[in-house]
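WARN no homologs supplied; continuing
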Amino acid sequence: MLSRFGHTVKLIAPQFVKPYVKSNKNDANDAEAICEAVSRPQMRFVPAKSIEQQDIQSLHRVRSRLVSSRTQLASQMRGLLAEYGIVLLQGISQLRRGLPLILGNAENGLTDFSRRLFASLYEELVQFDEKIAALDEQVRIVYRASEPCQRVAAVEGIGPLIATALIAAISDGRSFKNGRQFAAWLGLVPRQHSTGGKPRLFGISKRGDPYLRTLLIHGARSVVYRASRKTDSRNRWIADKQRRLGTSKACVALANKNARIVWSLIARGESYRRAA
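OK structure emitted
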């Protein structure tokens, strides 16, 4: 709204303003801290989102909530079945296939009351599946209508879901100086605590949006598991990381690499070139 009146909108992450708050927290001290923070020459700003980006991000937030609720429901159903002595393998697909068979078996020890209860829970699970499938179709529609999304999805380990989430987060990449800064914004770089000229690096910082970071790592995981069957330079690099660091760290390393590639594709408008 403010940009329509000719103002330049700059958003600052709260953790960068907090050090400038003096004494107790109130509106006056907060306003003073914001003015002080925005005047710093090295201050980092959060990119303002367009209405289209907000629409796509809202779509992802709703889908993420439904997926989380479906997972909670499946865990509860599996736990309740275990109390009746019925154990199912892990995975929602196992629950989808196994529960109708359990409800149809009259000799498994379930009472009529519990059968009705599990039948209603199964219907709720089906409803979650239908709602998530409808949102997935909306994601595919957004992906097919967006040329930047299609360029980003050309990277191995990134599909329509991850591509649309990334484009909803950043539009042109100008808010970040380079790919490493973008990866750091996603929390995919080591957490540092160095002093006295002695560098100390720990696990990844986990800053930024956990949803984007999770998507990138899960996408990278699917590539890491298939890397040993391919011989190009990219997959040789992945296989070497997996052998030296283990699968989990190799997935994070690839997610970091993909984040840097994505920044280059968005900021420079380039097309992805597969490794030979």
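The longest helix spans residues 112-145.
OK
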